[in-house]
Design brief:
2% strand; globular; mainly alpha; 62% helix
């Protein structure tokens, strides 16, 4: 899984990394950058959404019982000192952690394509929080660091500039606020409210005041989940296509705004090449993405399947799904080394 992600991210880096064939007058920022970065965001979405979905489609009893983390910290390949500490946490907190994992991996990735900047920032910090916690409690080499790098595609120049100590841009604080800002705030608060409401409803979150803990359990069936997945898979593809189309149109407009006839043509040529490459990658990625729901996979245009078959051996697009089933439920396997001087008595 990690090698597949590295291959796909490496190929996307070819599109994202700036190519300075012509330096004179060429700005550091390129009009088509938002299009290629969208490809990175789409990879992050497929990685996280599929990782959350497969935990439930696998019918693993520990994921459905929210008890997976009561085994995970102890039975994973290379536990860390932080894993030992996490393993000591009470069961109700372990179950609540599984609920949070589902929310971050299944629900929050939908915000990657949100029109509001603050929702995308919220999604970014949720993903980073999850990956940092995994790093502290397990050793998975570069995988989690690479996922954090992919999550950077959710940020904008202004937010990164604040990390680098650049002065914050001053925005007018007119009162009363404009209708657009009011609607944006209402949409943002509604999103958080719905996220909390559906989490409480579908995981039956309930405070137990006597025991001073938070009870949780899965409040939907496997059939209900697969029906939901069948319903949303192709619409998610449609939302992603609209998001990509918007980025392409905005990039085209920015090419028109470039000063100088030659640089305008040069920016438009780069835009055409990168937009075509991104649309092509998006198209072929639909095949491995819809592996999570086979009926949706069968509804894809046959030409997309042929395109994917032509590039499949290069692994430029892949299917993902981390921790499909929790291993080591029966206990952590231990390696026992024995030695003998005479071949009869073993120590």
């Amino acid at each position: 899984m990690g090698d597949s992600l590295l291959l796909e991210a490496g190929f996307l880096a070819v599109l994202v990394a700036p190519l300075r064939l012509l330096r004179g007058g060429s700005p550091a920022w390129r009009p088509h950058d938002a299009v290629t970065f969208w490809g990175v965001r789409w990879l992050l979405f497929r990685l996280m959404f599929a990782s959350g979905v497969v935990k439930l489609t696998s019918r693993c009893p520990t994921w459905w019982g929210l008890t997976a983390l009561t085994y995970h910290y102890e039975t994973q390949c290379i536990p860390t000192p932080g894993a030992w500490l996490a393993h000591q946490l009470p069961v109700w907190f372990q179950k609540l952690s599984v609920v949070a994992t589902y929310v971050i991996e299944v629900a929050v990735p939908l915000l990657f394509f949100a029109p509001l900047r603050r929702l995308r920032l919220f999604a970014f910090y949720c993903q980073v929080l999850l990956q940092v916690l995994i790093i502290l409690t397990g050793n998975y080499n570069f995988f989690n660091v690479l996922t954090i790098v992919l999550a950077l595609s959710l940020l904008d120049e202004e937010h990164v500039g604040r990390w680098l100590g650049r002065p914050r841009k001053r925005h007018g604080s007119a009162w009363p606020p404009s209708l657009g800002s009011v609607l944006a705030t209402l949409l943002e608060l509604s999103t958080y409210g719905l996220l909390l409401y559906w989490t409480v409803r579908y995981f039956s979150l309930e405070l137990n005041w006597d025991k001073k803990l938070l009870d949780s359990k899965v409040a939907f069936t496997y059939h209900e989940f697969t029906t939901w997945l069948r319903t949303v898979t192709l619409p998610l593809v449609g939302v992603a296509f609209l998001s990509l189309s918007w980025e392409i149109l905005v990039a085209m407009y920015r090419c028109v705004c470039v000063r100088g006839c030659f640089w305008k043509l040069w920016a438009t040529l780069q835009w055409a090449i990168m937009a075509t490459a991104t649309v092509g990658l998006f198209a072929v990625s639909l095949v491995p993405f819809t592996y999570i729901e086979h009926e949706s996979n069968g509804k894809l245009w046959p030409g997309i399947h042929r395109m994917f078959g032509a590039v499949e051996r290069f692994q430029v697009v892949n299917s993902y799904g981390l921790f499909r089933r929790m291993t080591g439920v029966g206990g952590r396997p231990e390696v026992i080394l024995e030695g003998s001087w005479d071949g009869h008595s073993w120590t």
